[in-house]
Write the structure tokens for this entry.
Amino acid sequence: MPMRILIEIKSLCSYNEAEYEALVVGLETLLNLGAIHVLITGDSKLFINQLTQKFKSIKSNFLKYFSYASKLLSRFDEGEFKHGFQEQNKEANDLAQITYSYKLSKQNF
């Protein structure tokens, strides 16, 4: 069953850092609720490929997120990753537009 979680990120971050923040909060929440299976869908090939280890996380700020997310993912019996184009993931895109509460640093424009 899909779950929606609204979080506010108070520090400056890139779009990919915001995705990792959302992933970590979602995984922590699911583990606290006793979930044993997880499906992660994202519209960023970079993000999904980092999680599936097809791409390496080069920047140190991604390594800390990747390491922690990997530790959380290992606690699930099963995890599935799915890349979907933004247009195909209307609900997530709509929520992102409504809750665009993370702050992009100027270097990310």
Q: What stands out?
A: Residues 101-109 have pLDDT under 50 and may be disordered. The beta strands are 37-42, 78-83. The helical segments are 15-32, 45-51, 60-73, 90-98.
